[in-house]
Design brief:
Porin, about 15% helix, mainly beta, eight-stranded antiparallel beta barrel, about 230 residues, 8 strands
Length: about 230
């Protein structure tokens, strides 16, 4: 019985050692660049994430990613758009859109050695928070409607998302790696500010609100991985 127990413990130790060599963790941070309609009213954001990897083979890894991204309103872009639409109001807005994405994905290395380009595919979801408040003021002196406060809005929820990426990593030591990568992220039903020509009706120039729509952004991140 003692011999069997000893053999069992030895087997567990061997399996544990082998499993550890398949696991890795990583952290990175960078910029989150709006794409398409998303660029109209939000500035370039910032983000970071933590990654957990399991090596199926030397070239193929499964991944779990948890991140954070945030964008603040582009005040100048909104007021410029209002001017183009000949809407005689200026906005002072406090608005942001932030997300916590969580992905299950795969990474494939296209070369071996210290220098290894790779591509990734991730699918999952994201929880979000959208906030909007501010004031509207008439740019015409002594106008009948001088403006007023914009009712505060705050929306939260969870939606699906998808990301495709390309990257490159460099092996510094046996366990330590540096990497840089970029991903194209698609967010379904993201909350953003509505079109300026839809913001106002003639009787209510403070009717700014958030609307749902598919949005996309490109993330560019630099980070480090540690393989056990």
């Amino acid at each position: 019985m003692k011999l069997i127990l000893t053999a069992f413990l030895a087997l567990l130790t061997i399996n544990s050692t082998q499993s550890q060599s398949k696991f890795a963790i990583g952290v990175n941070g960078g910029v989150s660049i709006p794409v398409g309609e998303f660029t109209r009213y939000y500035e370039v954001g910032y983000g970071a994430n933590a990654q957990f990897f399991y090596g199926v083979s030397e070239d193929f890894l499964l991944s779990l990613t948890v991140g954070y991204d945030k964008w603040n309103v582009d005040q100048d872009a909104i007021n410029k758009r209002l001017e183009e639409q000949e809407i005689n109001f200026m906005l002072e807005l406090d608005s942001y859109f932030k997300i916590i994405p969580f992905y299950i994905g795969a990474r494939y290395y296209m070369a071996k050695g210290k220098h290894r380009p790779f591509f990734t595919l991730d699918f999952g979801g994201y929880s979000y928070e959208f906030k909007l408040s501010g004031t509207a003021s008439n740019v015409i002196p002594d106008a009948d409607f001088p403006g007023g406060p914009i009712p505060e809005q705050k929306e939260t929820g969870t939606q699906t998302s998808l990301a495709l990426g390309l990257g490159y990593f460099y092996r510094v030591t046996k366990h330590f790696y540096l990497e840089i990568f970029s991903k194209y992220n698609v967010l379904t039903d993201a909350f953003t500010i509505n079109e300026p020509d839809q913001i106002y009706d003639p009787d209510d120039p403070t009717s700014v609100y958030g609307v749902l729509g598919t949005q996309a952004f490109i993330s560019v991140n630099l980070g480090a991985n540690y393989r056990f």
